Amino acid sequence: MTKKTIALLGNQNSGKTTLFNALTGANQYVGNWPGVTVDRVVGTISKKDWSVVDLPGLYSLSPYSAEEIVSRNYLIKGAYDVVVNVVDATHLERGLSLTLELLSFGEKTVVALNMMDKAKEQNIEIDVKALENKLGCPVVAISAATGDGIDALYEAIENASTPKKLNLYPKVMEDAITTIADKLSGDKQSIKEFIATALLQRDKLYVKEFNNENLQIELVAQRANVERELDDDVESVIATYRYKFVDSLVKEAVKRPSKVGKTLTNRIDDVVTNTYLAIPIFLVVVYVVYYLAVSTIGTWATDYANDVVFGEWATNAAASLLEGSPQWLSGLVIDGIIGGVGAVLGFVPQMIVFFLMLAFLEQCGYMTRVAFVLDRIFRHFGLSGRCLIPMVVASGCGVPALMNAKSIDNINERRITLITTTFVPCSAKLPILAMIAAAFFPESTFVAPGVYLLAIISIFATAFILKKQAAFREDVSPFVMELPDYHLPKLSNVLMSTYERCLHFIKKAGTIIFSTVVVIWFLSSFGFGEEGFGMVEVSDSMLAAFGTAVAFIFAPLGFASWQCAVAIITGLLAKENVVGTLAVLLGLGEVAEDDVSLGAALHGEFSTDAAALAFLAFNLFSTPCIAALGAMRRQLASGKMFAFACVYMLVWAYAMGIIIYQLGGLIAGQVAFGPGTIAAIAVLAVILYFIFKKEKAKSNLRIEARSI
Ligand code: GDP
Ligand code: MG
């Protein structure tokens, strides 16, 4: 038995990851919306000593999205032995077009006809032999979810051979392909022909790579030739003949039940994506999720964790363990580590509840519908419904949200989404909200909805402003949103996804937040006192000195104390720090965010309600925590763009703060008219100017050499 590498390729949602898990026994995250596998994942089949690579889904080898490019590059590099093309048997037409492209590549290929269990359920009969004959490569019927057919798949992989060339196109087109291929260097005819086909279709990546003049002239000539003879452009010719081939193949090999009534999915969609009902239904779903995660079960569990587990058990245990140890050590452990990290871990129960529901909604297929429905609204702001998914995820944690944004096909939308997603208040920001609400607006219920509304306004305003800028107007290709069938998610998949997301959060608490807490504790406990450098009261600490030096920046926002400045700085590292830092700096130690003594102390910090709200707004909209920034940097894939994003967020946060304090305060009669008012009006005017600025018409100067 030789060692082999197997590449899994196929449409999104065809079941590649499920097959990968079935082959390797690994637990990759499986989702029921496009784009869950964003990078390639490698595993081993211990039974066979083979390695297997799970690649992002793709619809065609003329890729549009970043993840499709990942897959194509992998294919081209050729560091594998056999391609296993995973095709969803219940959506054959969609999958086989990619199969044709893969076969044209000329590498050993096996088609794994997946979801046969579902096909059977829907009474779809597939003549596997007929498919095999027509495609000229082995086709194996499998069900990745149940494990049926996996052994036959192993056998087919073992015996895979190079596929024979399919002559799909009319002679003039085939000739054009071979003519161009002959002009390319390289020793594999099939790959040369593949590149030739791509070049004829004006594939951007290849055109850039092979921009020599001779070749370009030949391309123009060949395209013109095809167009003259077939009276259609090259792209349409290729698409049409591929489609014809697939169509005849499906007609021959597939028997569908003659009386097709409405499937369950169609019937559910009649209600869920109904013009009038869709949005109310979505709002009800969101309400239920938040009711369970934030108002009831999640909060009970989190309160228990905070008050009992960390507030009593851990603190008491540490106190008795550390009896007799120096004061700084018990200070570090109890106030610093247990207080700080505990405050974060206390959130885990709430996140479990939230992520469980989110995983269910994702995997049953509902989230894709939501994206589809909201597309109508998002379009107006230069975004698509697809951008909603990261934003929903961000209400739990920004890190998985930003990672998810990678699979938004349209680069402009992806960038805008990456920059705006963390405006959504994540679970770590909620304690700041709770603290301000409890201290300043105990009777009113508008603060929380108001904050979400402001977040939504910030996202749309930002999208509106950015979409007009040149950097966010790159050429993009249209894309089609897939609506997968509804199905009941597997419990193990829901648990797996919840587990991974929580783990991410806990890791963050264990690393970044842990170190921040220690550093902040050190800076706030040490300084130059009367006896030189040593442990001092907070007010004499290094942190206080730094806070004092920068506090003036926030004076126009209505608060200028060093404590607030320090809380904001620690918040830039992780938003979980804000409440704890303030409580410690105000001399209260570990208290809950809605504690009465904290509320009283805050009234001393913020002379007006408006200032407290400005503080809240600045914390919500400024740059997210370090972990999220790391994810953002990676996904934006451009240092310049990332720097812009950071500056933009800080400026936006400051702008919201100054508008709320100066203008909100003025209206409420808490702040007098003055230079600050004028500054705030100017800021508001600039924002409105950018929002209403006319979009410059896109230049149409790009001339393509289409005809001679
Ligand atoms: P990928 O995007 O190609 O990686 O697809 P996934 O592996 O994430 O699977 C997409 C959805 O199809 C998931 O909800 C899977 O549970 C489901 N699925 C995958 N394979 C099968 C199968 O053989 N039968 C059935 N009924 N469902 C499957
Ligand atoms: Mg996958």
Short description:
The protein has 708 residues and is an alpha/beta fold.
Would you mind describing this structure in some detail?
By secondary structure, the chain is an alpha/beta fold. It has four domains: 4-158, P-loop containing nucleotide triphosphate hydrolases (Rossmann fold, 3-Layer(aba) Sandwich), CATH 3.40.50; 171-255, Helix Hairpins (Orthogonal Bundle); 279-427 and 444-490, no CATH class; 527-692, no CATH class. Helices cover 61% and strands 6% of the residues. It has 31 helices and ten strands. It has a six-stranded mixed sheet, with helices on both faces. Strand 4 (82-88), helix 3 (92-104) and strand 5 form a beta-alpha-beta unit. Helix 3 (92-104) packs across helix 11. The radius of gyration is 30 Å and the shape is elongated. The chain starts with a strand and ends in a 16-residue tail after the last helix. Residues 31-37 and 698-708 have low confidence and may be disordered. The structure holds guanosine-5'-diphosphate and magnesium ion (MG). Magnesium ion is lined by residues 16-17, 36-37.
